[in-house]
From TrEMBL:
Source taxonomy: Bacteria, Pseudomonadati, Pseudomonadota, Alphaproteobacteria, Sphingomonadales
Similarity-based family: Belongs to the peptidase S1C family.
PANTHER family in the cross-refs: PERIPLASMIC SERINE ENDOPROTEASE DEGP-LIKE-RELATED, SERINE PROTEASE FAMILY S1C HTRA-RELATED
Domain of life: Bacteria
SUPFAM superfamilies to which the protein is assigned, alphabetical: PDZ domain-like, Trypsin-like serine proteases
Protein name, entry field: Probable periplasmic serine endoprotease DegP-like
Matches recorded under NCBIfam families: degP_htrA_DO
Entry's EC annotation: 3.4.21.107
GO function terms (MF aspect): serine-type endopeptidase activity
Amino acid sequence: MRYVYGLSTALLLGGATATLVTGFPAGAQVAQNDERQMSQVVPRAGAPASFADLTEQLQPAVVNISTRQRVQVQTNPFAGTPFAELFGNRGQNGQPQTREAQSLGSGFIISSDGYVVTNNHVVSPNNRATLEEITVTMPDGTEYEAELVGTDAASDLAVLKIQANRTFPFVEFGRSGDVRAGDWVIAIGNPFGLGGTVTSGIVSAVLRNAGGGAYDRYIQTDASINRGNSGGPLFDMQGNVIGINNAIISPTGGSVGIGFAIPADVAAPIVEQLRAGEEIERGFLGVSIQPINDDLADSLGLPRNRGEFVQTVQPDGAADRAGIRPGDVVISIDGQAVTEEQTLSFLVANITPGTRIPIELVRDGERRTVQATVGKRPSEEELRQQQMFDPDAEPETGPETSDGLIEEKLGLQVMTMTPQIARQLGADEDLTGLVIGAVDPNADAARKGLRRGDIILTANYRAVAQIADLEAIIAEAEAGGRDAVLLRIQRRGGQTAYFPIRLR
């Protein structure tokens, strides 16, 4: 589930039917004494009195997807208290406790040899879980094992391959760019684990910005979408897949007629790249941005619905090399206006890295144009670290919520150094080490003064470039009967010192 502004925006792990009326007279309201006839608006071809024939053709290619996962769980009731080290997160056999978890969603077959499209969140476990098995269930109840071919977290798409030597029914992508608000659509999926379910409605809006991410542009529909519909198809009246059901907005978690589908024009190229085993490359400028709100627009003398404000610029990134500065307002990218519907992130992400483009901006009340060579978007993990790591911020989670060896023995939450984090800490970009993200206040490391933003350079005089390096040194120290590990720490500003940290 994903929550936005207090409403549950459910990542759908799809469908109440609407009453359908065709040939209904519509037109502008006229005065009572106006003798002109009201104009008749004829529905677009293909809006049937019944969806039965279309459903019969399409439903065989829509499948249910279930996964089996192994999850490590926190079993220490005293976690985060001074008694935590007396009751470790271990089972009776000395091993971490695990449990089995499952997820359930929908998908659709796109080729006769069994390639399946679904949402990434249907088949990708969280960071505490390991994916063990994927099962695809056909409408007739036949089950097949499936292999995960590729995933793309940014667009929330995944491709599977059914492990069976047979010919499968399949459906094809259509052109979502041709879709208009008011067009009929049907959704087929697996809501609440009920099995194949069909719902109908219309397109409520196209290219709805519902999240702010680089690919958060959706087709909005009032066809009932519910948990379990994730990854299922949204069809037009010609039987083409025009969207992949992905999310809803609801105060209750159930459908209230605001559902979202990833447009086919966005999904189809990514699906083909995943199917071919190719890396998904997206454009990137290296800026943090803010929409133009009323106060910002008034202070800058700009229209409210135009452009985005640049808050920070990454050193030596594409924007920095192009001369873009904090405080600039970007109003167009490669000739396309930056608006609430077409944000800077959305436009740039859809440009091939290495492309040189004009960027129009406003600086000190004057318009100017700069030329930028678009960079390559970092991985989602790298972006997460860039966005989350403020050295002065309070970490959202402490080490007590993790069950790794370093957290358990040293009371430290660490991450591998990246050039981006190094710049944020004022360190050399080629520096290797581990960055401390959080310190357990009950650990010896906290008593010795270690804090968020410190960099571990060595442990017991050996360099630590990866988390596994420090884990190995801790294990060796324990095996050798040592009760502490000697860490060489670089503080912000470049000062270094040694700290002996007792093991727990």
